Amino acid sequence: MFDLDRWREIFQSISKNKLRSALSGFTVAFAILLFTLLFGIGNGLQNTFKNEFAKDAINSIYIWTNTTTKAYKGHQIGRRIQFKNEDFKFLKEKYSDKIQMISPRLQRTAKVVYKTEEDSYTIRGVYPKYDLLESAEVTEGRFLNIRDINEKAKVVVIGRMVEKDLFGQISAYGKQLNIGGIIYKIIGVFSDPGGDSDERYIYIPFTTMQQIYGNNDYVDEFGMTYNPEMSIDEALAFSNKMHRELKKKHEVSPNDQRGIGINNYASGNKEVSSMMVGLSILILIIGFGTLIAGVVGISNIMVYIVKERTKELGIRKAIGATPKSIVSMIMLEAILITAISGYFGLMLGVGILELVGPSLEKYFILNPGVSTPVVVGATITLILAGMIAGYLPAKKAAQIKPIVALRAD
């Protein structure tokens, strides 16, 4: 139970030995401070990687065309490759078991007008579910559906920043926009984790854009997501095979890296995952190294403290103190100093991270921070170290006969 006299003795001991207590506390606080800062910065780097990949679905694949750089099968260098609707059908049918969703895309820049407000924005013609590919979230209304595609409807879904630019504080949902001289109805507004730039896009049905901007069956590029049940290696093998098939279909040299381009996020995910694992291991090594240094420091101080108090312990035994009470008093003192110092080091570390966090973004460290359970666990580790370090010499000192202890220098 709570023993007021014992705690009064502990606080008296601490107040009479301020330097000793301060050194013990500083060792613990400094170890926890370094531990917090290291893990906070490490988490900030991981947040940067995660934020970059949050702009699009992590299982995304993009395919686009360009001009060829190698002559092949009678074709000259510099031939422009053009995707068409038949390529869309080819990919859907051939890889239906590998593709989760797929959308062709057209992209143009056009002047957009609402009443007296106007600006230029990127217009994208896409299929339903393209919002999932971009990790966009419809905040009002809905995204495009298959009926819009079939009817070639003149409807649009606009980004949050387009709404802010043209409509100010009022809702854009249900209003009409003039895009390149054609009136469209706004059926939805979306936000995007990619930030303001990704929220300045306007999406319209692919078939509508294909008819208005060319009246042909051209496709600029394809965006798709692969089956999430596929492993990274399977996803990479799938995209490589698809790349080869498209090159073969359009008679592009297998060695031409420019004619048809492809970007599979699985490749980046694999590299980033390896990098994050390596970073986590490095942080753990450094962090635990810091803790070990703290453990050694607190252990040495506790050994010194017990040795210094040998005469005091002898007097306590001479006036009737039991070995158990002596050991528990030293242990409680060690726990109290370690716990308070550890909490101070934790709060100081968290405060420093919050203070300098915004300025670290230019060094690619985003929202540095550390989870409380991790640092509490580190503090408990130091407390246990202090207990063990204090227990062994305290137990030995408590077993010394009072007369021997009183003779100690």
Separation of the first and last Cα atoms: 35 Å
SS-derived structural category: alpha+beta
Number of strands: 12
**What share of the residues does DSSP label as strand, in percent?**
15-25%
Molecular shape: elongated
- The parts where pLDDT drops under 50 for at least 5 residues are none
The overall average pLDDT, rounded, is 84
Element-by-element helix/strand order: HHEEHEEHEHEHEEEHEEHEHHHHH
Main sheet? 6 strands, mixed, barrel
Sheet with most strands: strand arrangement: 3-4-9-6-8-7
Radius of gyration: 34 Å
Helical percentage: 40-55%
Q: How many domains?
A: 2
Count of alpha and pi helical runs:
13
Outline the structure in words.
- By secondary structure, this protein is α+β, with helices and mostly antiparallel strands.
- The protein folds into 2 domains: 4-52 and 271-407, no CATH class; 99-226, no CATH class.
- It is built from 13 helices and 12 strands.
- The protein has helices at residues 4-16, 18-53, 85-94, 130-133, 146-151, 160-167, 206-212, 232-249, 265-308, 310-318, 323-356, 372-398, 402-407, and strands spanning 60-65, 83-84, 99-114, 117-126, 137-141, 155-159, 176-179, 182-191, 201-205, 218-219, 221-226, 260-264.
- The strands form 2 sheets. A 6-stranded mixed barrel has the order 3-4-9-6-8-7.
- Strand 7 and strand 8 form a beta hairpin.
- The mean pLDDT is 84.
